[in-house]
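sorry for the late reply, my laptop died twice this morning and i had to redo everyting from scratch. anyway the thing you sent over, i finally got around to it. pasting the sequence first so we're on the same page, its 190 residues, then the predicted structure underneath. double check i copied it right bc i was rushing
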Amino acid sequence: MLDKSIPYYNVIMKRSAGIALPNYSLPEGYKFTWYTPNDEEKWAEIEAAVGEFENTKQGLAYFRTEYMPFLDELKRRLLFIQNKDGEEIGTITSWWNLTGEVRHPSIHWFAVKNEYQGLGLGKALVSECLNRLLLLEGDKDIYLHTQTWSYKAIGLYLKAGFEILEKESFGHYKNDYEKAMPILRSVLDV
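ok and here's the structure:
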C-alpha cells in the first residue's frame, strides 16, 4: 500500500550488473503465473488495490495504452502470484525503458495486495523478476523508478542489491534525490 501521508518525490534506483541475484522462493500455497491475454483486468485490479490508480478502470486504460501494443512481450515479462484459490494477488513486470536509443532493463509496476503483504511474496516477485531480466536482457544494470510513497518497496529493493541514485536517471523519469532522501531517512534505515 502506498503511504500517501508523506510527500511524493521521485526515486531512481539501479542494480549494477555482475552482482549475485537474490534467491527467494514463494511460500507454500502460492504460485507464479505469466500473463495471458485478458489478464489485464487482474493487473489493473491489483494496482488499484494498492493505490497506484484510483480504480480498476483507470488502471485498465493505462495498461491498454502502454502495454497492449507489446502483447508477445507481456507473455514473457508480466508475472503474477496466485493464492491457493487461484486469485492473482501480486504482480511485477520485467520491462525496459529507452533513454534516447539506449535500452535499459527495468522493473515496472510491482505490487502485492495489502492483505498479502509481509508474507515474503514481494521478495519472491522481485527475485523472479531479476532472474527474468537477466535471461531476457543479459547481465546489465537494471533500473527502476519509484516514489517516496513506496518506501516499503524501496527497503525491499535495497535488500535486493539496488542503490538509490543521487543524480542519474533513465527513460523520462525525474530524479528528486535531494527532496526524497530526508523523507526516506525518516522512514527507512538509509
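DSSP finds six helices and seven strands in the chain.
thats about all i looked at so far, will dig more tmrw
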